[in-house]
Design a protein that fits this description.
The chain is α/β, with parallel strands linked by helices. The protein has a single domain, classed as Rossmann fold (3-Layer(aba) Sandwich). The chain has five helices and seven strands. It has a seven-stranded mixed sheet, sandwiched between helices. β6, α4 and β7 form a beta-alpha-beta unit. The termini are close together. The relative contact order is 0.19.
Length: 198
């Protein structure tokens, strides 16, 4: 399937299971910590400045947001996790929303994209999200964002630490990425199109 990611439009926000989209189109689910630059990665992929909300303070995506790509697939922006300045009740609501998406998601998620910060060891929340993607059985792509913040000599050890922490094999896809500079964009787009059988 050919997919033109530059042709994307906001479709809907889902704050409950009843609002999930189930129309049979492929869904690429993007997950990551609140401050990992998930919205920036999505905007870079779509070639837009602000289609996905880039918050001055992390933790602004509190619902599941669906973006229709080329009228053929959805890019699904999941709520950011792990941000401390949010009430416990709100965190629990996000948690329930995410769990119901993943419980259903095995049949809907075409590929999962887990965004981690290349500068840091993946957190316990990252590991949990990684496990959720694995349990749905969908292909998973790890995107190590903020590559532009590292010196060349730091890149390999950083990638190795992510591979070890998430227990990745050689077959698992890990893409060093810079939302700032666009490094890794073409590779990620190619993997997503392939996941659709493109």
């Amino acid at each position: 399937m050919d997919l033109n990611f530059a042709k994307a439009e906001f479709s809907r926000s889902a704050g409950s299971r009843e609002q999930f989209l189930r129309d049979g189109l492929p869904q690429f689910a993007f997950a990551g910590r609140s401050n990992v630059g998930k919205s920036s990665v999505i905007n870079r992929l779509l070639g837009r400045k602000n289609l996905a909300y880039v918050g001055a303070s992390p933790g602004k995506t509190t619902q599941i947001n669906y973006f229709l790509v080329d009228r053929k697939a959805y890019l699904v922006d999941l709520p950011g996790y792990g941000y401390a300045k949010v009430s416990r009740a709100e965190k629990e609501r996000w948690g329930r929303l995410m769990e119901s998406y993943f419980q259903e998601g095995g049949s809907y998620i075409t590929a999962g994209v887990l965004i981690v910060d290349i500068r840091h060891k993946p957190t316990a929340d990252d590991v949990t999200m990684h496990r959720w993607f694995r349990e749905t059985g969908c292909p998973e792509i790890i995107v190590a964002n903020k590559l532009d913040k590292l010196k060349k000599s730091q890149i390999e050890p950083a990638i190795e630490l992510i591979r070890q922490t998430l227990e990745l094999t050689e077959e698992d896809i890990l893409i060093p990425f810079s939302a700032e500079k666009g490094v890794g964009k073409d590779e990620l787009l190619g993997v997503l199109v392939n996941a659709c059988g493109g």
